[in-house]
């Protein structure tokens, strides 16, 4: 790893550890191995959003050319969000792509992601299905996101209706995650979800 | 009538042969305070504390005719001691004396008794300083006293008719009636408080004019014999002042500065501007001044051994004086010493533009050469260091003066404005200083190159002496290296020379031409070392060529006297002690021509062992080179006459150079110190810097510091900051070098809170944050920083460069499209 990149990451790591947000348990970062190339981040779901209370794991990979190129970040925790792939966890955020600035740090990146959860950008989606749902059936989107958060990110609030629908679909013999994706994609319509699973 | 006739004769005699009279003197047996002459100037009365005599003035001697101080010792009182004496201008027999007890004594020489004392006025309370008879009124006597009053005595009524008293009642030191034909009733009085008053005899209540002439007591005054408005005054403030009292207030016309308090002054008759004076103390001379030339006496009489007390003009060419040394002298003006002739009357001044104006006295054309010599001496007034011997000629540039064709007849002064081109060669011209300051190179090259460069620079501004010195400096400190070089390169030659076939014809032909040239070369080689150095390298390249070819070239060179230089150069250039075999040195000193065979014999013996080419011993190589050359020439020719001459040259040179191995460092130090003493601080400092370690340790640090400071100060005055800074950096003196650090401070402010950052340039004490961080690596930038003028973001230049390879926007993320040019 280039000297400048490692130096920077060390400093930024310290900065996050010491920051106020860590004290408030909003963000966190930890080393995966001894080198600073691979980090594990965690952000809290921002309040007043479907993601509230959830803890979302992030995989952060520092490229050799850092800080000239942005760090590679993706969600490890499954999340229902227009700008984040519900399948891969890939993030669609300008600052992690062409709007990257060398002045940004791990902390600002994590905070930006937190902000992204609070303010989705459906017109520039990463996940088109979610984005469409977000725009056409926002209430369903909200409940779905809540459901996903409670399921994968230890969210405190549960949606009984949706849980039941997932259970019924599982009872129909489908795999749980497949059932959940099918229901989420089909506005929680059991019939269409079943068809979706079968197709 | 007889007197008038006598006077007439005198005048005629004066005109015909003014120098007929002889200087003469007489001892008066006591200190003389005053004297006066009778009207026809045939007799002199001298008076003092112990003296009261009438002395007849013969043509060739003084004759004492009568002594008025006679009588029984118990009768001789203070009335016989006179502070002043006056001879009546009309009555040949009447005298008046002023006594220190306040008495005014009238003497009548026509009395038949031994004591001539006629009457004593006891009107003054304190001592009387001056008594004067009126010029025309025979019985009017005026006295001035220490008690502040002046009394007019009527000698017929034997009583005081008028008393004049100034308002201040200061002591009266001198009174003089206005010359008869100019102002009948006027007289002037000098007071001890520096005031001079003009009185009219008819108005005793108040004076006509009143002015302060001096700051200290006025001791003497004298009316001008021709111009009734001119009055000269003199006093303790050592000045003689000439006033025009017609003006209101009195106008000061001339001031003559003397070296001591002035006791008496007397205008010279028939010479409008000449005035004689004698001093109260210190100065025993009687000086005659031209009031227009106030600092040097026009003429000076040095006969007195003690203070002169009184002076009198007998005529314009004869001056009488008395002194405390008992002597009465008659001085002939022609024999006077003229101090003005002994000074070199030259004046130099510098205008604000740096132009120099020189005014100097132009004598006759006959002494032109002498004069020029003097001036060049002036230019050469330097300490006689040994180095001076080598370039005395360079100094002559200072002596370039144009001769004035027509000297001023009146005062024989000629003033001349020097032409601008001459000014340029003058040391005081600052343009050359500026030029040199800019052109001198003080670093970046070898010492020799620097010296050569600076020499050229100095020559370009016509400072030939400095240029020469640079060249010498360059040679002194660089021949060491070049000489060792040439010596080592000499090795292949040693191989070749003895073995090569010798063309006898060549040699002989060479000798025929060479002898006289060589003689010249020996002399020149001394001061033309640089040339030698070049030539020696030239022969190096020659030696690369084919050996027999080389031999011919070599011989041809010898013949022309060129290659010859190279031969003895390696002896010449070596500054270390040369260990030549004793035989050679001795031969050089002896008259070898008488013993030719012995002279060569030892050389053959030495050649054998000295020749091995692979020996690296420095000295033996040198010897070998010399020896083998000599042998090469000598062997085939045997003992022919030309070859002997040639050999002689070799030996002579080696002996000569061995004898003149100088401690060059001390010479260089002398030169530098000499420049500093002369005030050419620029040369001194520049040489000090260029020569650096060679001389630095030999000059004490304090002088060095002084020189540097002076030079830096000068440079700063001419706003040559860059050069001054360079000099500071090159000074090697901690006291000087700290100038660059102490006088420059840059304050930085925190960009966030705008507070000045005191502790360091990158940490704000108040914000507790690091400022000016690199946008890329987030480290404070120490060193080269670059930032965008548009958004003020930036950082390490390398990081920004790398960033901009892949991005066009600001690395700080501000969205600005940064532009760097």
UniProtKB/TrEMBL annotation, chain A:
InterPro entries: UBA, UBA-like_sf, UBC, UBQ-conjugating_AS, UBQ-conjugating_enzyme/RWD. It comes from Littorina saxatilis. SUPFAM superfamilies: UBA-like, UBC-like. Gene3D superfamilies: DNA helicase RuvA subunit, C-terminal domain, Ubiquitin Conjugating Enzyme. Residues 4-154 form the UBC core domain. Transmembrane segments: none annotated. The active site is at residue 92. Residues 161-199 form the UBA domain. PANTHER family: UBIQUITIN-CONJUGATING ENZYME E2. This is E2 ubiquitin-conjugating enzyme. Belongs to the ubiquitin-conjugating enzyme family. The keyword Nucleotide-binding applies.
TrEMBL record, chain B:
One of its GO terms (cellular component) is cytosol. Residues 521-533 have a biased composition (Basic and acidic residues). Keywords: Metal-binding, Repeat, WD repeat, Zinc, Zinc-finger. GO terms for biological process: cellular response to amino acid starvation; positive regulation of macroautophagy; positive regulation of TORC1 signaling. Residues 488-551 are annotated as: Disordered. GO terms for molecular function: zinc ion binding. WD repeats lie at residues 121-163, 211-246. The keyword Zinc-finger applies. Gene3D superfamilies: YVTN repeat-like/Quinoprotein amine dehydrogenase. Belongs to the WD repeat WDR24 family. PANTHER family: GATOR COMPLEX PROTEIN WDR24. This is GATOR2 complex protein WDR24. It comes from Littorina saxatilis.
């Amino acid at each position: 790893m280039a000297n400048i990149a490692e130096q920077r990451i060390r400093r930024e790591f310290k900065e996050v550890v010491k920051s106020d947000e860590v004290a408030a348990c909003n963000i966190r970062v930890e080393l995966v191995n001894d080198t600073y190339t691979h980090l594990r981040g965690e952000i809290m779901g921002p309040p007043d959003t479907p993601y509230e209370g959830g803890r979302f794991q992030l995989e952060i990979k520092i490229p050799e050319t850092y800080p000239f190129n942005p760090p590679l970040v993706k969600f490890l925790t499954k999340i229902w969000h227009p700008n984040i792939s519900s399948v891969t966890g890939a993030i669609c955020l300008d600052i992690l792509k062409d709007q990257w600035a060398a002045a940004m740090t791990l902390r600002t990146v994590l905070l930006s992601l937190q902000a992204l959860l609070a303010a989705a950008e459906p017109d520039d989606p990463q996940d088109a299905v979610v984005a469409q749902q977000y725009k056409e059936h926002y209430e369903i989107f909200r409940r779905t996101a809540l459901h996903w958060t409670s399921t994968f990110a230890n969210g405190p609030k549960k949606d009984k209706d949706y849980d039941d629908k997932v259970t019924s679909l599982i009872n129909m013999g489908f795999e749980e995650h497949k059932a959940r994706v099918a229901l989420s994609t089909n506005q929680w319509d059991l019939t269409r979800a079943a068809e979706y699973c079968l197709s | 009538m007889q007197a008038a006739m006598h006077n007439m004769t005198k005048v005629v005699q004066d005109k015909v042969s003014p120098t007929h009279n002889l200087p003469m003197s007489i001892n008066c047996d006591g200190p003389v305070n005053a004297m006066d002459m009778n009207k026809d100037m045939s007799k002199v009365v001298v008076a003092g504390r112990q003296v009261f005599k009438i002395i007849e003035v013969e043509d060739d001697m003084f004759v004492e005719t009568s002594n008025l101080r006679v009588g029984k010792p118990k009768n001789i009182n203070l009335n016989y001691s006179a502070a002043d004496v006056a001879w009546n201008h009309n009555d040949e027999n009447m005298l008046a004396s002023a006594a220190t007890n306040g008495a005014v004594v009238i003497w009548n020489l026509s009395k038949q008794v031994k004591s001539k004392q006629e009457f004593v006025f006891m009107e003054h309370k304190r001592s009387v300083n001056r008594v004067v008879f009126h010029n025309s009124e025979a019985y009017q006597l005026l006295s001035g006293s220490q008690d502040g009053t002046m009394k007019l005595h009527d000698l017929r009524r034997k009583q005081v008719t008028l008393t004049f008293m100034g308002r201040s009642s200061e002591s009266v030191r001198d009174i003089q009636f206005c010359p008869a034909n100019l102002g009948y009733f006027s007289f002037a009085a000098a007071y001890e408080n520096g005031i001079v008053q003009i009185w009219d005899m008819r108005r005793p209540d108040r004076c006509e004019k009143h002015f302060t002439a001096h700051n200290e007591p006025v001791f003497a005054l004298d009316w001008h014999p021709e111009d009734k408005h001119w009055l000269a005054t003199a006093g303790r403030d050592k000045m003689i002042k000439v006033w025009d009292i017609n003006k209101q207030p009195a106008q000061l016309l001339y001031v003559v500065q003397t070296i001591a308090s002035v006791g008496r002054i007397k205008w010279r008759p028939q010479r409008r501007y000449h005035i004689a004076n004698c001093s109260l103390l210190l100065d025993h001379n009687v000086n005659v001044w031209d009031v227009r030339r106030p600092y040097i006496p026009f003429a000076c009489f040095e006969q007195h051994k003690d203070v002169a007390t009184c002076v009198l003009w007998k005529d314009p060419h004869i001056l009488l004086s008395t002194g405390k040394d008992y002597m009465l002298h008659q001085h002939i003006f022609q024999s006077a010493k003229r101090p003005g002739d002994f000074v070199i009357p030259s004046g130099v001044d510098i205008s604000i533009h740096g132009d120099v104006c020189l005014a100097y006295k132009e004598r006759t054309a006959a002494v032109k050469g002498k004069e020029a010599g003097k001036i060049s001496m002036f230019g050469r007034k330097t300490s006689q260091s040994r180095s001076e011997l080598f370039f005395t000629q360079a100094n002559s540039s200072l002596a370039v003066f144009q001769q004035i064709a027509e000297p001023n007849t009146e005062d024989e002064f000629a003033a001349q404005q020097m032409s601008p081109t001459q000014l340029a060669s003058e040391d005081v011209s600052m343009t050359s200083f500026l030029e040199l300051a800019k052109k001198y190179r003080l670093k970046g090259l070898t010492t020799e190159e620097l010296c050569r460069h600076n020499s050229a620079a100095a020559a370009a501004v016509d400072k030939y002496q400095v240029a020469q010195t640079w060249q010498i400096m360059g040679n002194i400190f660089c021949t060491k290296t070049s000489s060792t070089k040439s010596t080592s390169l000499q090795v292949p030659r040693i191989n070749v020379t003895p073995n090569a076939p010798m063309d006898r014809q060549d040699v002989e032909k060479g000798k025929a031409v060479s002898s006289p040239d060589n003689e010249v070369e020996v002399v020149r080689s001394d001061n033309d070392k640089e040339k030698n150095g070049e030539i020696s390298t030239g022969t190096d390249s020659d030696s690369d060529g084919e050996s027999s070819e080389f031999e011919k070239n070599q011989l041809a060179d010898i013949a022309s006297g060129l290659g010859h230089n190279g031969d003895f150069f390696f002896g010449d250039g070596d500054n270390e002690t040369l260990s030549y075999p004793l035989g050679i040195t001795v031969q050089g000193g002896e008259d070898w021509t008488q013993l030719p065979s012995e002279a060569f014999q030892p050389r053959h013996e030495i050649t054998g062992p000295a020749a091995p080419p692979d020996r690296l011993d420095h000295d033996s190589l040198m010897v070998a080179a010399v020896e083998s050359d000599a042998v090469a020439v000598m062997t085939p020719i045997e003992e022919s006459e030309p070859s002997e001459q040639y050999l002689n040259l070799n030996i002579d040179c080696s002996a000569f150079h061995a004898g003149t191995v100088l401690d060059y460092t001390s010479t260089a130090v002398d030169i530098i110190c000499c420049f500093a003493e002369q005030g050419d601080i620029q040369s001194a400092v520049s040489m000090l810097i260029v020569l650096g370690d060679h001389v630095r340790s030999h000059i004490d640090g304090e002088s060095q510091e002084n020189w540097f400071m002076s030079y830096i100060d000068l440079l700063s005055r001419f706003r040559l900051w860059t050069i001054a800074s360079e000099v500071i950096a090159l000074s090697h003196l901690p006291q000087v070098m700290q100038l660059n650090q102490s006088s420059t401070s840059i304050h930085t402010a925190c960009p966030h809170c705008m507070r000045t950052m005191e502790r360091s340039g990158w940490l704000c004490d108040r914000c507790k944050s690091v400022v000016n961080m690199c946008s890329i690596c987030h480290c404070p930038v120490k060193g080269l920083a670059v930032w965008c003028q548009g958004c003020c973001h930036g950082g390490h230049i390398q990081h920004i460069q790398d960033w901009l390879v892949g991005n066009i926007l600001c690395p700080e993320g501000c969205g600005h499209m940064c532009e760097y040019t």
